[in-house]
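Title: Comparing notes on inverse folding

I've been comparing how different people in this forum approach sequence design from structure. To keep things fair, I'm posting one structure and asking everyone to reply with a full sequence. Here's the target:
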């Protein structure tokens, strides 16, 4: 491999990472996808501007990876897609620059530093204003849930750690001509596979001996399949009025509903339009939902567009906008609401917003926001996670779309007592691309991390029921209008990951900071020594 030119090694690395990514079931290629990049560094070690050249080739590989895996964002916003691809590739390349710098001054610690830097980057990418953790390496195993049952201890960053360690280990062995030891990282991967299978078997055996605390919830999941570009939001010839859109969702579900149905799940923004939160129970649009829950135990969980107004003279929130006609400040929300006993009983506002679409990561970018879903500018959010109560005091988490990508945030619902995960989403913005399939599979990771079952309603698909081992038990095909009935079993308790959080990310972030300080001190000493020598 050392004989190949750096450009070819860069292309090979990018291509391997693309074909290893969900929804393809080839995740184990992730264990070799980054190896060619370390061979590039070996070739450039004695060249001028080695760090810059290494960064350039690494950036190319990561740009190929990002483009091949998330090109579908183009369907929602060409400009946003280009910016996302360029910036995310840049950020992902920085840990490799850290590796190159450490390799020069502390060569024995270079691979360790690389692993720490990369994990620190992933943790940071979960938690800053422009977060886009779609390509966190641990998510790459979403297509093979049988292998990642140990995520209940580590979260998805445990998968990232394994990928980085195995890639570094293989690269170190190959670069030092220790081919006979390549069995070692292979055995490590196999041990994790055995651990995964053993853990699942143990949980199944233990569950068989336990008496369920709650009865299974009878659920109906609706998939109205309304095109977001021509029918849902665009006021053109094919636009469907809010009443018609809601009628589609109800009509699809009615054949599957019985008097025993506990939960009816509609997708994100199933209820569109300008819906004042102080008037929801009096709006004509909501009447069909209120009537469906009269005199029974049915609970309807649906996504909606809502807003609230404020009487304050000064801007009441950072996301509030001023309406010159009414003279009032208002906030718009991407909302999940629960209808039961003939009233809108509970409301939750989406809190993990999509950068550039639902929020501007920085205030000066507010004017550049993309209008998807009837609002422009940053949306208002909930202050904290909040569950809905259904059935016999069962708690259900109303995760809205992008929120299901965040493991730590999902944990907040579990800590507040969520027994079942519910996801309402609209993946139709991306069209029939890998985007919607990736989003569905990422949900399997949340189920494993929390050991909760998930019910999922997607406007255009794929709607699904997922068990707590990440197995998709029932689903509706993409671009199909319909519904299905399923049973969702409530569970209690907290996994190690839920209870203690992302320890790998926290430790790596701290380690990255320490390494950066060490590198800075080393650079200052070298400069001082060089100055003294002159």
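Reply #1:
Here's my take.
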């Amino acid at each position: 491999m050392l004989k190949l030119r750096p450009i070819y090694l860069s292309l090979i690395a990018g291509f391997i990472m693309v074909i290893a990514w969900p929804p393809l079931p080839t995740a184990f290629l992730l264990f070799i996808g980054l190896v060619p990049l370390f061979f590039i560094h070996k070739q450039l070690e004695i060249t001028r501007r080695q760090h810059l050249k290494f960064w350039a080739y690494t950036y190319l590989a990561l740009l190929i990876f990002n483009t091949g895996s998330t090109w579908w964002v183009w369907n929602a916003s060409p400009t946003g897609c280009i910016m996302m691809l360029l910036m995310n590739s840049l950020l992902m390349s920085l840990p490799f620059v850290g590796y190159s710098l450490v390799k020069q001054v502390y060569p024995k610690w270079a691979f360790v530093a690389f692993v720490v830097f990369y994990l620190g980057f992933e943790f940071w990418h979960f938690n800053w204003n422009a977060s886009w953790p779609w390509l966190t390496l641990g998510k790459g195993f979403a297509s093979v849930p049988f292998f990642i049952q140990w995520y209940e201890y580590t979260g998805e960053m445990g998968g990232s750690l394994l990928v980085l360690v195995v890639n570094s280990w293989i690269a170190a062995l190959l670069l030092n001509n220790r081919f006979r030891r390549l069995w070692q990282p292979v055995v490590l991967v196999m041990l994790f596979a055995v651990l995964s299978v053993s853990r699942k078997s143990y949980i199944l055996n233990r569950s068989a001996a336990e008496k369920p605390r709650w009865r299974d919830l009878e659920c109906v999941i609706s998939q109205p399949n309304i095109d977001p570009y021509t029918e849902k939001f665009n006021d053109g010839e094919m636009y469907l009025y809010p009443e018609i859109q809601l009628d589609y969702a109800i009509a699809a579900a009615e054949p599957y509903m019985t008097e025993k149905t506990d939960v009816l799940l509609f997708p994100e923004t199933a209820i569109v339009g300008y819906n004042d939160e102080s008037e929801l129970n009096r709006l004509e649009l909501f009447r069909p939902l209120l009537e469906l829950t009269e005199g029974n135990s049915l609970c309807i969980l649906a996504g909606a567009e809502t807003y609230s107004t404020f009487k304050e003279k000064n801007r009441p929130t950072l996301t509030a906008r001023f309406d010159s006609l009414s003279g009032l400040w208002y906030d718009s929300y991407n909302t999940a609401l629960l209808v039961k006993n003939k009233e809108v009983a509970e409301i939750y506002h989406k809190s993990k917003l999509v950068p550039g679409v639902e929020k501007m990561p920085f205030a000066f970018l507010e004017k550049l926001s993309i209008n998807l879903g009837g609002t422009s500018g940053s949306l208002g959010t909930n202050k904290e996670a909040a569950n809905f109560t259904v059935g016999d005091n069962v708690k259900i988490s109303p995760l809205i779309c992008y929120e299901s990508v965040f493991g730590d945030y999902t944990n907040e619902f579990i800590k507040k007592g969520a027994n079942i995960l519910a996801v309402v989403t609209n993946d139709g913005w991306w069209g029939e691309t890998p985007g919607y399939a990736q989003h569905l599979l990422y949900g399997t990771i949340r189920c494993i991390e929390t050991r909760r079952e998930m019910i999922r309603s997607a406007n255009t698909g794929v709607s699904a029921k997922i068990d707590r081992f990440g197995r998709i038990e029932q689903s509706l095909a993409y671009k199909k209008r319909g519904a299905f009935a399923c049973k969702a079993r409530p569970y209690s308790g907290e996994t190690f990951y839920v209870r203690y959080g992302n320890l790998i990310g926290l430790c790596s972030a701290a380690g990255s900071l320490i390494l950066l300080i060490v590198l800075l001190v080393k650079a200052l000493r070298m400069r001082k020594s060089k100055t003294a020598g002159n």
